Every structure is written in C-alpha cells, then in structure tokens.
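Re: the 364-residue chain
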Amino acid sequence: MKKFIKYFPALALIPFLVACGGSDTKKTTTKKPKADYTKDTNALDILTGQFSRNIDQIWGVNELVQASQKDYVKYTDQYYTRSQIHFDSGSISIETLGDQNRLRNAIIHTLLMGSDASGIDLFASGDAPISSNPFLVGQVVDNFGRSIMNVAMANDFATYLIQNKLKTRKLSNGRTVSYVDIPMVAGHVEVRARRYLPLVRHAAKRYGLEPSFILAIMEVESAFNPYAVSYANAIGLMQVVPRTAGRDIFARMGLSGQPSREYLYDPEKNIDAGALYFTILRDEYLDGITDQTSKRYAMISAYNSGAGAVLRVFDSDKWEAIDRINNLSPDAVYRILTTAHPSSQARNYLLKVTKAQQKYRNVR
C-alpha cells in the first residue's frame, strides 16, 4: 500500500533536517578440519526477496536497483524515492515517484551522508543520517564549484538542481519519475583513497604489506565505497565474506565465530580484516612460494578465487603446484594466472589490481 509521510515546505526543511541530522580456500593439513566455504547467500536471499517484491510493486518490473560493491543505493519514503551513487563511474542519480519536496529531501540526505555504514540498512526504506563530516566532501561540488559542507549549502544546491536540471521519465507501469543527475568531480576515486590513507598505512605496517597493495585491492573491490555489499555477502571496503574469510580472520585473532556486518562496515576493522587475511594467504595457504613477486600475484588471485583454485591452475597437488610456481619466473606466473585460470573474473581481477597498484606506488 502506498503511504506518504508529511513533508514540510522548502523554507521549513532546513531546521527539520538539522534536527534529524570472497574465497573458497582450504588449507591441506591434517591439523585443521576443512571448512564449508559455500557462498553465504541464504540470509541475503531472504532480505533481497522481500526487497525486490517491494520495488516491483511500486516501480514495476525491470526497475529493481540495489546496492552492490561499487553502487550505493538507498530507498526512502516507503520505497517511492531512491538515491544511487555509482562510485566507479562517478555519477549520482536521485529519483522519486513523489513530489519535489521528497526529491529535495533525498538530495540533501545523500549529499550529507556520512561514511559510517554500520547502522544503515540498505534493504529498508529510510533516510541516511546527515553527518557533520559528509563522505562526499571533495567528490561533489555545487553550481558555484564549492564542496557541500552543511544543510544550508545542500538545500541551495537542491533548489538549483530542481529548478534547472530536473528530468522526468515514464515507467512501464505508467508512473512518472522525477529525477536529477549529479556528476562527481574528476579524480573522485583518489579523493576517497586519501580519506582512508591513515588506516591503510597502519594496517600495512602492522602486517608487512605495501600501502599501494591494500589501496589497489580496495579500489578494485569497492571503489572505496564504505557501504559496499555483494551478492556473495562480501561486506565493506575490502569485501570480506563473514562466513569464509571472516572465520579465518577471527581464528587468527583468537576469536570464535565470525565478524558481524556491523564489524565489517567499520572502515578501520574492515581494512584491518582484509589486510590480516592477506597474511593468512601469504603465511599459511600459499606458504612455500619462495619468490615474493610470484607470491604476491598468487595472493591477489587467491583473494578473489581462493588459494585452492589458484594452486590448481598449476597442479592438482598443492605441493607440486608450489614447486612448479617456484620453477617459474614471476612474469610467467603472472601470465599463467591471467590467461589459464578457469575463472575469467579471477583472470581480470589480477590484471586490474596490478594496474591499480601502479597508481599508488608512491604512497608510503
């Protein structure tokens, strides 16, 4: 049933807003039992099932848009309004089936949302809280070229967008959508990368990794989207799956069970968890590979497809595979993993991470 909440006129809006304001890896030892590394999708399937039904009923078929690794999507107004941030391509789209006040409200809350995703349910209807430290500062500018820092600036920009950039489109169910598109600035990915540099440097030093390595993984996994979630239930900046890598990480930390979604949506904990998992790959699952460059290529590929899948590219027996890797040059290992891995996603993943790491080589 369609339900509308009361909206305040534009002049009353500002004080109101201020008040509101993956892996399948197995270690082949006799000491550690094999874990079940099936993808952790059951809970997510239940969430997205009801969620998609809500969208189908309101927006019509083929209109479902939902959050992903590099896309932030938030529905409000009982699912009649939605905001999308495409962190990869650098574009923002905010649309509504309601009136302009609803659109204005969504614009303001999107521009001023924070970086803390731990308390945000992307599968429920509701505004993201307004933050005193907006996540999009430096990534979006208003019609005067200014970063949008507060409610007054966001409200002024929303007025400009509605008066000058408003568009409409018809849905297949006959309803009319009103929307605005907002471009992000050039270099928006690097702006987000700089935001996480202190946390990356700390994790890199703690686990003996290069900052450029961690940054490259974050860029490819999530485009530095702190709200990132995948269908395999990988969560956060480094896309850690609680049931698989998460269990390994907690075990290495001396903890039982697996990290919660709230834990992994904390940027500091997520970056630490992802970096720690690389040490598990390096020191446990891929231990025995002697050349550090070859091991780095194997670690990157294993982060995407699992260490077992990486080693099977070279031989069905783990130790024979490691011996073969050790008898190859790093360039040969790279060439094999980017051409002979059975997963096209894994092949492309190594290519993308290696390319992204070059961008951050000067980061220390």
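Confidence is low (pLDDT under 50) at residues 1-41.
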